[in-house]
Write a structure and sequence with these properties.
- This protein is about 65% helix and about 10% strand.
- By secondary structure, it is an alpha/beta fold.
- The strands form three sheets. It has a six-stranded mixed beta sheet with strand order 6-9-10-3-11-12, with helices on both faces.
- The radius of gyration is 35 Å and the shape is elongated.
Length: about 600
């Protein structure tokens, strides 16, 4: 049922975008607001906490891997002092002893680092898998309005690219930062132990590194947010152009599309360049400052040695520890652009996760059992933009088993009426009743399950024809599928295929015609045993002969059901029990075909225009 719900919401949102002019609902789409870095880090840490056993193991490995690596310089200094003091009579057994210990500690550190990297890759994969699951679940719960105002490509970018960036950062950068933090603390402790005076030479340049890094952080953070935004826009434009490729070629608009793409691509490339350029500057600059620190250590160490304040071994160990102290700072600076990119990507994902979901069912929401199909719309007013109502005081009374046709010019409000019946949106005022129950007091899932929809815009997925027909009723037997296909007048075509019902439809139905896709969706609808039916130009993609045959099947499908039919070909709704003429958001006329013809009003003009 959830899959059907996603399908209906996505398809209906597409129709809304293409067939009715409306204002944008109040959903957040901006990505250039000031970023809350602390909040982003906090939320990412919550994902790590979900896999805390792996995280604890990673911390353990990180600590001991770095501690073992930091023992090496001290042992190296001891070996050098033994050689320096030997003056031709060196005790090489002790030198070999320290060298052996160095090898042992370095090998142990390397093994732990390898296990740590593998562990973080596993944890990163699990976190990205969990995050994608949450994002997809969220997308199934968002209202239609969210899809009205957000490009599909931008949404896909958040599900794929942004989460991949986060995964990469968690798998590598987090390990690097943790290791660097431990290395800096332990190296500082060892340097203080060896020579507190020499430590002062290191701290001469440390404030300069910190001040410079903080300055560049403020400068580069918004650049990475902009980069993610431009990447999403590029994805959105590309997705639109690929899906409309035939239309582009039909109007020979290739050159215009290329120019538009060049402009968007240039903006994206510029955003990438700006972010990476300033991010790349940080690493070499901090490295230069650290090299100044090393030079100061060398000069100070030489002076202290002349005054017998330190030994050669201590200077050697101190230099190694100073490199280990400054190295992590340099590494963090080098990957700072990746960290900022991950935080910007995380904020885009979290912004989606924080979007308002569909209004939850009211407490003690009513079930919708044994639906008769009596639908009453009372004084309903609705607006996407609160200042300009799309529907104004609409009243509809549909008796059980009746056929209600809705006609009108493009943008008149026909699709909006259906949106309200299905509770894709809630009316601003007035009420909609089904069997005397206000739909706002009914469980939303049961309300939508009470309807079957056949839309003008067809949708099939990659899979067999049998699976596509059974999509709305997964437990349907093969005989039921065949019966539905026969009723939709597509059985003969299916049997003419080499694999029959097991023929695989390519992605988006590229290997079958639009008319055949339409027939498959009609067969799909015939499997659903609901008491209310919504038809939106369900035969618009088939030829006249096939249309007449399908109409017979549709009339069988419609028997005993409350039907709402959006029609552009007025000849197809002549037998409707009631025809509603919507004009500029108001109900201009209503009645049977003959009654409206005799009035010679708006419906009469529309009907006659299709015959002239």
């Amino acid at each position: 049922m959830r899959c059907i719900k996603i399908f209906i919401c996505r398809r209906w949102a597409y129709l809304n975008n293409n067939r009715e002019v409306k204002k944008v609902p109040p959903f957040s789409t901006k990505t250039d607001k000031p970023k809350d870095t602390k909040k982003a880090i906090s939320r990412l840490l919550k994902y790590i906490w979900r896999f805390r056993f792996l995280a604890v193991a990673a911390v353990f490995l990180s600590v001991f891997s770095n501690v073992f690596a930091l023992v090496g310089p001290s042992l190296s200094g001891n070996a050098i002092d033994i050689i320096a003091k030997g003056k031709g009579n060196v005790d090489f057994s002790k030198v070999y002893y320290y060298a052996g210990l160095m090898l042992l500690f370095y090998v142990a550190s390397a093994v732990m680092s390898y296990i740590l990297s593998t562990l973080m890759i596993v944890m990163g994969r699990r976190i990205s898998n969990q995050m994608r699951k949450e994002v997809f679940d969220k997308l199934t719960k968002l209202p239609v309005g969210y899809y009205d105002v957000n490009q599909t490509g931008d949404i896909i970018s958040r599900v794929s690219y942004d989460i991949d960036v986060i995964n990469t950062s968690l798998s590598t950068d987090v390990v690097q930062i943790a290791s660097s933090f431990i290395t800096v603390l332990c190296s500082l402790g060892m340097m203080i132990y060896i020579s507190p005076k020499l430590v002062l030479s290191v701290f001469v340049t440390l404030p300069l590194s910190i001040i410079y890094t903080r300055y560049m952080t403020k400068k580069t953070r918004p650049l990475f947010a902009k980069r993610s935004k431009k990447y999403g826009s590029l994805n959105g434009f590309s997705e639109e152009m690929f899906s409309g490729h035939k239309t582009i070629q039909a109007y020979a608009h290739e050159e215009g599309v290329i120019n538009d793409f060049d402009a968007i691509n240039t903006e994206a490339a510029d955003a990438f360049f700006d972010a990476d350029y300033y991010g790349t500057i940080i690493g070499p600059s901090v490295g230069f400052i650290n090299n100044l620190s090393l030079a100061l250590v060398a000069v100070a160490g030489a002076v202290f040695y002349l005054y017998n304040l330190v030994s050669i071994g201590q200077i050697s160990s101190f230099v190694l520890y100073s490199r280990k102290f400054s190295g992590p700072v340099n590494e963090i600076a080098n990957m700072y652009n990746e960290i900022l990119s991950a935080l910007a990507a995380g904020e885009r994902v979290f912004r989606l996760l924080d979007e308002k979901e569909e209004t939850p069912d009211v407490p003690d929401a009513l079930s919708l059992n044994d639906v008769k199909g009596e639908v009453c719309v009372k004084n309903v007013t609705f607006a996407y933009d609160k200042t300009k109502p799309v529907l104004k005081k609409i009243n509809i009374n549909a008796a059980p088993g009746s056929i209600t046709a809705i006609v009108g010019e493009t943008g008149a409000g026909k699709t909006t009426i259906i949106n309200l019946l299905m509770r894709f949106y809630d009316a601003d005022s007035g009420e909609i009743l089904i069997d005397g129950k206000d739909i706002r007091n009914i469980k939303r899932e049961e309300l939508r399950r009470a309807y079957t929809m056949v839309l003008q815009d067809t949708w099939v997925f990659k899979g067999t024809i049998k699976d596509n027909i059974a999509y709305a009723k997964e437990d349907a037997s093969f005989d039921e599928i065949v019966a539905a296909a026969k009723a939709a007048r597509i059985h003969s075509y299916i049997m003419s295929l080499p694999q029959g019902y097991d023929t695989v439809i390519s992605e988006d139905g590229g290997n079958i015609s639009k008319g055949q896709k339409q027939l498959i969706t009609i067969a799909r609808a015939m499997l659903v045993n609901s008491n209310m039916l919504i038809l939106d130009e369900a035969t618009s993609n088939v030829d006249t002969r096939t249309e007449k045959a399908i109409q017979k099947a549709m009339f069988e499908l419609m028997k005993g059901k409350t039907c709402f039919v959006i029609a552009h070909r007025l000849s197809t709704i002549r037998n409707a029990d009631c025809i509603l003429v919507v004009d500029n958001g108001t109900l201009a006329e209503s009645g049977t075909h003959q009654e409206l013809i005799e009035k010679r009003g708006l419906y009469y003009k529309m009907y006659m225009s299709q015959w002239l």
